[in-house]
Amino acid sequence: MKVTARSTPNIALIKYWGNRNNDLRLPAYDSLSMTIDTPSVDITVEDSENFSLRSFLADGTEKNLEEKDIARFMKHRELTNHYLHFLGIEEMIPENIAITIESGIPPSIGLASSAAVFSCIAKCYGSFGGTELNDEQVSVIARLGSGSATRSIFGGFSAIEAGDGNDIDTAKGVQIADESHWPLYDIIIVPSQEEKAVGSTEGHAIAQTSPDWTQRVEAMPRRQSECISAILNKDFEKRQVVSEEDCMDMHHVMETSSTPLKYLSNETHRILGEVKELRSSKHLEVLYTMDAGPTVHLFCTPDARADILSFANAQQGCTVFETTVGPGTSMIEKA
Ligand code: DP6
């Protein structure tokens, strides 16, 4: 058997940071994002004589995988088998499979490459046996590899419903509105291509050590419901206010955890200052958000797109990506 799927990152408007169960990546609260249409990852999973995992970058060069990368995929397959068993499905993902990743996403630059990779492999696993899993079940498999991957299964705008308890299926993805609902852009400014020192997995595990963690958790249900209604009503300003508040709050929690995690650089802060000036002088519908890195995402409406693109392209030494709302994870080939 051989299956190939394609997926893209999603960028959170209400951020997931911190788990109630780190092993199963069960988030502490709900979160919300927009799935973008590019860059994409293709993954092929096929039967093989032994286990192999190979990863290729956009230019065709093979990436040198570290022990910990391979261990993460092995653990993910093991957790996927636990989940399939939980569902009462007899067919498990075999030990000897060949996984080939072809990624158009530069690694570790705040472009959610793990979200695209684990949603993509979840789609392959969910179709590997005789049983075709539904999107909700595939989103659970995605979550077992990377929390934010739960949301990339769906196109448009989607949420993680965190649920409660410690059962493997208690947190899952749900679509809020599909990709045709609201044509928005995410113009991405990448100030640095360096790999980050502390990844999200380690970060989630220390989120609770911030003195402001409890306050964050208490604010999340209000933020989530405000952002969902702003999306459903296409209310850009409401969405901007709540998502910027949540983004800066997440970075505050990161910076006050022990060890402090400082993902935003001076470049990030300079760009934010200039975006705010541009927004008020030209009355543009644009909002900023950053994940675990210095990369700035500028979400904007079609009317603001040209101004935001020329602002982004004027940033010295930065890489710029232009993206729009994407369709989520899809099956490319099954044989
Ligand atoms: C800051 O999903 O990358 O991007 O489960 O360890 O892969 P792992 O964490 P990950 O965490 C994402 C955190 C975030 C916010 C978000 O996407 O909601």
Helices, by number, come to 9
Write down the oligomeric state: single chain
CATH class of the largest domain: Alpha Beta
CATH topology of the largest domain: Ribosomal Protein S5, domain 2
Strand content: 15-25%
Tell me the distance between the termini: 6 Å
- Work out the helicity level: 25-40%
Q: Mind describing the biggest β-sheet?
A: 5 strands, mixed
| Bound ligands, named by name, code or SMILES | ligand DP6
Helix/strand order: EEEEEEEHEHHHEEEHHHHEEHEE
List unreliable stretches of 5+ residues: none
CATH architecture of the largest domain: 2-Layer Sandwich
Strand order of the largest sheet: 7-8-6-1-15
Give the helix/strand class: alpha+beta
Q: Tell me, rounded to a whole number, the average pLDDT.
A: 95
Number of strands: 15
Summarize the structure in short.
This protein has 335 residues and is α+β, with helices and mostly antiparallel strands. It contains nine helices and 15 strands.
Give structural notes.
There is one protein chain. With 335 residues, this protein is α+β, with helices and mostly antiparallel strands. The chain folds into 2 domains: 2-179 and 326-334, Ribosomal Protein S5, domain 2; 185-324, Alpha-Beta Plaits. The protein is built from 9 helices and 15 strands. The chain has helices at 67-86, 113-126, 135-145, 149-152, 200-206, 213-232, 236-255, 266-282, 305-313; strands spanning 2-7, 10-14, 19-21, 26-27, 31-35, 41-47, 52-56, 97-103, 157-161, 172-177, 185-190, 286-289, 296-300, 319-324, 330-334. Strands 7-8-6-1-15 form a 5-stranded mixed beta sheet. A hairpin with a 6-residue loop joins strand 12 and strand 13. It binds ligand DP6.
